[in-house]
């Protein structure tokens, strides 16, 4: 359960829509994360016209690769601030997320100032709010990756922990997926989808109506689906293990401890410092 302390009652009554609003901000951030990661593959120099189309239609060869990378970086990382603000306003809590937010290196405060530099005009072309981020180095990058992934975990886990029958659980997942438009995938999702495909292929193979070439293709596809499911499950497990390595790296110079919640920088989003 990863010491999850959020109350699944948040999915009932008036708080349902407040949680859906929070999840939508997280979904926005996840879209921007994908665009940011796509921008990292751009060449440093402009290539021929249209060469960026394979990354995303939002990336244009009329602009320098550096500009597009900077824009994707700024908007993605800044988009995490409403997620943090909503987390606090809803009084959500999770040990791993709280440890990241209260880290003694002040990563949260650096992110807040960086967000302000993105969405409030700055006289300096590259001022202290931006340079502070880069001065923190690799650990700041790992902090963002971990925070985003833990938010996604809590979002999905809160939905999955909805009390009731398996049918109730599936209904709430479908409702949330329909309202927000996104629900993070798990290894169980991969396994369920693979099982559905394998069952369908089994039915086709056993029906006896397939031609010999079609039967061979269906048989090979069934084998491929099983192998892909195993690889996907292993990849997700490997990624989870890698995140724990990153977490150890971030906290290696600090005894992993939680500070009183009241000591978190409570500067509001209307402040520009």
Give an account of the 3D structure.
The protein is mainly alpha-helical. The chain has one domain. Helices cover 64% and strands 0% of the residues. The protein is built from nine helices and no strands. Helix 3 packs antiparallel against helix 6 (138-160). The longest helix has 39 residues, at 212-250. It is globular. The relative contact order is 0.12. Residues 1-6, 46-54 and 256-262 have low confidence and may be disordered.
Helical segment tally?
Answer: 9
Query: What general form does the structure show?
Result: globular
The count of domains is 1
Q: Which consecutive residue ranges, at least 5 long each, have pLDDT under 50?
A: 1-6, 46-54, 256-262
N-to-C SSE string, H for helix and E for strand: HHHHHHHHH
Largest sheet: none
Percent helix range: 55-70%
How many DSSP-defined strands?
0
How much beta, percentage-wise? Answer: under 5%
Strand-pairing-aware structural class = mainly alpha
Instruction: Return the average pLDDT rounded to an integer.
Output: 78
Q: What is the CA-atom radius of gyration, in angstroms?
A: 22 Å
| Intertermini distance | 37 Å
Describe the SSE topology.
Blueprint: H1 15-39, H2 65-89, H3 95-101, H4 107-119, H5 128-135, H6 138-160, H7 166-180, H8 187-207, H9 212-250
Helix pairs in contact: 1-2, 1-6, 2-4, 3-6, 4-5, 6-9, 8-9
Features:
globular, single chain, mainly alpha, disordered N terminus, 273 residues, 64% helix
């Amino acid at each position: 359960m990863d010491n999850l302390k959020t109350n699944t009652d948040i999915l009932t009554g008036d708080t349902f829509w407040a949680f859906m609003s929070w999840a939508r901000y997280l979904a926005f951030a996840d879209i921007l994360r994908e665009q940011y990661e796509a921008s990292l593959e751009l060449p440093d120099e402009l290539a021929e016209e249209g060469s960026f189309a394979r990354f995303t239609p939002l990336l244009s060869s009329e602009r320098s690769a550096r500009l597009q990378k900077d824009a994707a970086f700024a908007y993605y990382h800044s988009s995490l601030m409403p997620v943090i603000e909503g987390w606090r306003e809803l009084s959500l809590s999770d040990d791993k997320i709280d440890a990241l937010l209260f880290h003694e290196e002040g990563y949260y405060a650096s992110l807040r100032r960086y967000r302000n530099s993105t969405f409030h005009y700055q006289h300096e072309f590259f001022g202290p709010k931006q340079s502070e981020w880069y001065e923190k180095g690799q650990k700041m990058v790992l902090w963002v990756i971990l925070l985003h992934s833990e938010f996604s975990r809590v979002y999905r886990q809160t939905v999955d922990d909805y009390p009731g029958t398996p049918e109730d659980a599936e209904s709430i997942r479908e409702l949330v997926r329909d309202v927000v438009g996104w629900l993070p995938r798990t290894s169980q999702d991969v396994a369920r989808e693979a099982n559905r495909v394998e069952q369908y292929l089994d039915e086709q193979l056993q029906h006896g109506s397939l031609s010999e070439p079609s039967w061979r293709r269906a048989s090979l596809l069934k084998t491929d689906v099983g192998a892909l499911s195993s690889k996907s499950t292993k990849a997700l497990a490997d990624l989870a293990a890698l995140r724990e390595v990153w977490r150890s790296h971030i906290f290696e110079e600090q005894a992993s401890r939680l500070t009183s919640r009241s000591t978190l920088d409570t500067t509001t989003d209307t402040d520009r410092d």
